[in-house]
Design goal:
197 residues; endopeptidase fold (from Nostoc punctiforme); six-stranded antiparallel β-sheet; 6 strands; 42% helix
């Protein structure tokens, strides 16, 4: 259920609990009001946790947001204002370097699941693959990827947006054709996956 659908449903329930004064049925004002208040509190508590979502959901949502922004390099030089923002999530990041790993490190940090020792981010794909293996977060290419996983290639990286019925993947990747782009991939292209959630 989307956030908009959840909000709409809560509004419907609130209207049933608190109908306009002219339509309210005669009830015990103290017991009915107390029950309605408790029900409203419970609904609000449930809505808060639903809105926060899982780490995987956050990763996909954040990647889609960056895709929608149209992030791309300035003059094909591995740099721009947005790419500089991605570098902030990786200790030792340098301007002008390939930035696919900076993109993924940034998204992971924003989702609350930072990559690297102490959450320092990693800017080199083989280091991310090694970190995934050493932390038990690595899933072999023969495994079952999920939306929100990081797809690992020998020298490139991206985020799994969705898994299709035929087993192929839709990914969102930084530094693909000098921009953040949506790519259709076969699982066989990957060396493995990193599950952060």
């Amino acid at each position: 259920m989307s956030l908009a659908e959840a909000v709409s449903r809560i509004q419907q329930i609130q209207q049933m609990i608190n109908p306009p004064a002219a339509q309210q049925p005669a009830t015990d004002q103290t017991g009915g009001a107390q029950f309605a208040g408790e029900l409203q509190s419970n609904m609000n508590a449930g809505n808060t946790s639903a809105a926060s979502g899982s780490v995987a959901d956050k990763i996909v949502s954040l990647a889609r947001t960056e895709l929608a922004k149209g992030v791309k390099e300035t003059n094909g030089n591995n740099d721009s204002t947005d790419i500089a923002r991605y570098r902030t999530a990786t200790k030792g990041a340098a301007a002008g370097q390939p930035w696919c790993a900076y993109f993924v490190s940034y998204i992971a940090r924003q989702a609350g699941a930072p990559i690297g020792a102490g959450g320092s981010g990693l800017g080199y794909v083989p280091d991310i693959t090694a970190w995934a293996r050493s932390t038990g977060k690595f899933i072999p290419a023969s495994g079952q990827p999920k939306a929100g996983d990081v797809i690992l290639f020998p020298q490139h990286i991206g985020i799994v947006e969705s898994v299709n019925k035929d087993g192929s993947l839709n990914t969102i990747e930084g530094n693909y054709s000098d921009k953040v782009d949506r790519v259709h991939r076969n699982r066989s292209e990957a060396v493995g996956f990193l599950r952060l959630s």
